[in-house]
Amino acid sequence: MAGRLSYRDAGVDLEAARRHTEAIAGLIGGRTGFAAALPLPPGLEEPLLVTCTDGVGTKVLLARELGRIEGLGQDLVAMCVNDLACTGARPLAFLDYLAVGRLDPGAAATLVRSIAAACEAAGCALAGGETAEMPGLYAPGHFDLAGFAVGVVERARALGPDRVRAGDAIVGIPSSGLHSNGFSLVRALVEEGSLAADPDLLLVPTRLYADVPERLRAAGVEPRSIPRPGSAGRRPRRCSPPGGWSRRRPGGRSTWGSGCAWSSRRTTPRRRRRRSGTRAWWAGWSRAGAGWSLAPDGPFRVVVLVSGSGTNLQSLIDQVHEPGGAIEIVQVVSSRPDAPALERARRAGIPTAVVTMAGRDRVERDAELAEAVAQAAPDLVVLAGWMSILTGVFLDRFPDRVINLHPSMLPAFPGMHAIEEALAWGVRYTGVTVHFAEEQVDAGPAILQEPVPVMYGDTPEALTERIRAVEHRLVPEVVRLFAARRVRRDPVERRVVQIMPEEGE
Questions:
Q1: Torsion (CA) 213, 216, 218, 222 in degrees, nearest 10
Q2: What is the reported pTM?
Q3: How many CA within 13 A on the CB side of residue 457?
Q4: Are 362 and 442 part of one and the same domain?
Q5: Per-residue pLDDT averaged across 256-276, rounded?
Q6: Number of domains in the chain
């Protein structure tokens, strides 16, 4: 009868669960509750908590088939704490999730023991976890592993692509094995006989890279950006600023640490000569001795979106546009086929396109616009009198690369009638704001602002003229800042925008 069914009848062994709990209690300091509390390290001025989650993937299947699961715990921890290292964070705590069809306390203890040892090696606490026995979902003998990690980093030491500068060196650290990435392909190669089913080759635990940022600093090398593990041929572009940098430079190499290679040669990007050996970019997982250094791949590419006369477009053409130079306007897109701005672009030899906005579905039109702009591979998209609110369909294609200008000191007077509203309110100052574009009207965080005084007896025409004079200076200035990789939007506090100092300041 249904009323007589027990957990054992349903396939869940509570006695095995009890033995497992007792076995792992000692590994996590006797804690067997449902949550753990950890203090933040002392002495941090502006700490950021960093979280990530990952799993071992299909390497679990191969380890089970080859009868060697003891390395999977380190694989699990490494997949998470290595991601923390990519942000510059040091790991604080780790939690695991083990899902099984039928609980084997011995095998489960082996996995947790491996997890605990890896946490100790990475310098973080095994704060707890969850073991779930789910017959029917997993076949007997099958299991899966997932993990969650928390780390901390000083805001000033957080790493990211926006911190990379031309002339920085690249540090490469060789892999210790296949790690836990791409094992669906590894298993397919084993099955077809192209790769030997050798556990000493295939099941080497993923290396823990949690200490790499501090080891680099100890060697006098300040890391800028760290990508996740993968091919050295692709990863440099993943952790560089928009536009991508990666020119291989053989020779001129020094070695540090365990198989780490970095370029110490002098580079001369854009006629600025400086030693690159003290500002490093870890490209990760490349072959020992691979010599790379950073240099810009061509000009900084700008696309300008316009709807009207194009006076701000003209200021960009006059002040920053240089075909084949440091900054180049590679495309002008108009929402109107008769916009005078198009003629300004044609006179300057800049390719043009038209994507009409009026009377169209917003999602459809923005998808077409995104495709048109993407063809130009822009590093930056400038809305210079673009009279339409863009949706996420467009903005998500160019994250943190779309800027707008507005004739007020935002958040004051958003919308189309900012100048008239400033006069109606009788304010003493209005101004110009260049800001990141968002889906809401004039809502993105400011990059640069400049006030403009409102004079007694001002008319809309007179105030507009003074505002435009400021716009024509401010927009080119912001473009130059982006081209110099000096604009940094905080990855956590998204409304915080920093203008980084020039090299040498």
A1: -90
A2: 0.52
A3: 0
A4: yes
A5: 28
A6: 3
Element (DSSP H or E) covering residue 406: strand 402-406
Classify 20 in phi/psi space as left (phi over 0), alpha (psi -120 to 50) or beta.
alpha
* Separation CA 232–CA 8 (nearest Å): 51
User: Mean per-residue pLDDT for 332-360?
Assistant: 93
CA distance 96 to 75: 12
| Residue 270 contacts residue 485 (beta carbons within 8 Å) | no
Which of 98, 133, 158 is the endpoint of a domain?
A: 158
- Position 479 scores a pLDDT of 97
From first CA to last CA, the distance across the chain in angstroms is: 80
Whether residue 256 sits in one domain with residue 359: no
Q: Which of 20, 179, 321, 406 is catalytic?
A: 406
The answer to whether 472 is a known catalytic residue is: no
- Contact between 409 and 429 under an 8 Å Cβ cutoff? The reply is yes
Q: Tokens 């200035």 appear where?
A: 477
Q: Which of 108, 186, 194, 182 is closest to 145 using CA atoms?
A: 108
Q: Residue 174: inside a domain, yes or no? A: no
344 plus 377 within the same structural domain: yes
Give which of 367, 369, 344 is closest to 356, Cα–Cα: 369
Q: What is the CATH number of the domain that holds 153?
A: 3.30.1330.10
